Description:
By secondary structure, chain A is of the alpha+beta class. Chain A has helices at 15-26, 42-52, and strands at residues 4-7, 32-37, 55-63, 66-73. Chain A has one domain (4-73): Translation Initiation Factor IF3. Helix content of chain A is 31%, strand content 36%. Chain A is globular. Chain B is 40% helix and 15% strand. In chain B, helix 1 (14-29) links the parallel strand 1 and strand 2. The longest helix of chain B has 16 residues, at 14-29. Chain B is globular and about 40 Å long. The two termini of chain B are 25 Å apart. At the A-B interface, helix 1 and helix 2 of A face helix 1 of B.
Amino acid sequence: MVDFQLDAKGLKCPMPILKAKKVIKKMESGQTFELISDDGGSKADVPPLLNKTGCTLVEMKEDGGVFTFLIKKD
Amino acid sequence: MPKQMNFIVSKNSFEEFGMMVILGTTGAAMETQMNFFFTFWGIFQLKKGYKPGVAGMPFPFKKLGGAMFRKMLKGFGYDDMWEMVKDGVEEGKIKLYPCSMTMDLMRVKKKQLREICEEPVGAAAFLEMCDNADAVISL
Lengths: 74, 139
């Protein structure tokens, strides 16, 4: 079970990042967040966002162009 | 100290506007202070109701191109582009500075500019801001 989920499929850069940041702002230390995106740029864009906002990428899965990021707030 | 990036916006095109919105909002989301200095033709970007045309399209299609791009970006999940910027301005992460001399040169009055703008500044004030910036970029 994750604490937050966001399905950002269909959104293109920078919208998955901007919407993800809104979720990250609500997170407390230790909470988890699953972000799903089919924007090809997300693979490169999500890790820098996490670096800058005190989060860790626990896992990233790719399945047929759909990326699933498991994120944890430090 | 948070990172700071300063941008010079000197053109009135949709392309410049789009870069301002995309880089500004993304930088703000990444906790970077994003300052924009609007000078020469760039000042028109800040005028209420101004709809920039696309510089890269041939003359009769510039305005139409702007409407077309806006529609396509809406399909990409974009909200109203000025509303996106407004979020960053309200958080204090995006600051929009009109160039004071340009306003006189282009005969643009402060009341014609969007309320989310900062007070107009001159060259020295912007350059002092750049002393502390990690990057200064001319769009």
